[in-house]
Amino acid sequence: MNYDDIFTAYYTLYRAEATVPTSSEDEYKVALPLANEAINRWANYDNTMWKELFTTLQESGDGDLTIDSSTTDYATPDDMRMVGGYVWVKDANGNTVMRYPIVEPQDVQFQTDEANYCYFTGDPNNGFTLHINNIPDSLDGLDIDYIYYKKPTTFTQGSDITEMSQPYFIVHRMLANKFRSSRNPYYTSAKTDAEDVLKTMQLENNSGNWSNPWSVQDKSGSTWGA
Question: What are 67-123's pLDDT values in tens digits?
Fold first, then answer.
C-alpha cells in the first residue's frame, strides 16, 4: 500500500465519509507524520529483524557498486542500518571472484597487511564507509555486493510504498494517535487493534516458512542430554 491508500483507509475509518481530502488539504498533511511514526514503531519493535528490510548493495543501486583497485574506501547506501557476513566481488555474470570476510573495526589491528578482509566505519545516522584490504588489480571494475539491513522507507508523498507486510498496522496506529491527541476514548481500542497487527507480523516474521522454520526444533526430550 502506498500512502494515498493508507490515508484513504485511515480517513474512512476516522470520519466515515465518502469524500477523502486531497493532498493539498490540512487533514492529509497532518496525517503524514502520524503514518511515519507508525513506521518508526514497526522498525524498532522488540528488536525484531524484519525480513522485508534485508536487501543487497546491487539491488539498492546506491553507493559505490564497483571495485576500483586504486582505492580501499567505498560509499555505502544511504538507507543502510547494519551489515554482516561477507563482501563479495562478482563478475558480469554474477559469479563470485573474491569473498572478503567482514571484521569489526577494533579487530583490524589483529589482521596482517596481506590478509583479505573488510570492515565498515560510521553509523546509521551519518552513513557508513566500506574499507577493503588487499585488492588485486585483477578485480578492477568488477561488482561489489553484500547483504545489509536497511532503514524502512518513510512517506514523503502519496505514491511512496511501505515495505511492511501488513500496512493496516499503520492505519490503526494513525487512528490511535489521532484519538489520543483529541482525548477520544476510542484511543485504547485503536491502539489494541494496531498492536494486534504488529504482534501478528512479528509472529509471521519469526516463524520462517512451513518447511524451513527459523528456529531449530528441540528434539532432545524433557531430560538434559537425553
Answer: 999 999 999 999 999 998 999 999 999 999 999 999 999 999 999 999 999 999 998
What is the 8-class DSSP label of residue 22? P
Enter the pTM of the model.
0.87
The secondary element (H helix, E strand) that includes residue 3 is: helix 3-15
**Rounded distance, CA 223 to CA 12, Å?**
55
How much is the pLDDT for 222?
A: 45
With pLDDT > 90 as the criterion, what percentage of the chain qualifies? 88
Letter string b/e over residues 27-64, b meaning 16 or more CB atoms within 10 A of that residue's CB: ebeebbebbbebbebbbebeeeebeebebebeebeebb
Q: Where are the domains of the chain?
A: 3-48+154-206, 52-150
pLDDT surpasses 60 at 225:
no
User: In angstroms, what CA-CA distances link 183 with 7, 30, 40, 194?
Assistant: 21, 17, 23, 18
Residue 208: which residues within 8 A CB-CB, separation 6 or more? 214, 215
End-to-end Cα distance, the chain: 49
Q: Which residues pair with 66 in a beta bridge?
A: 143
Cβ-based neighbours of 110, under 8 Å, separated by 6 or more = none
Tell me how far apart the alpha carbons of residues 135 and 199 are, in angstroms, rounded to a whole number. Answer: 45
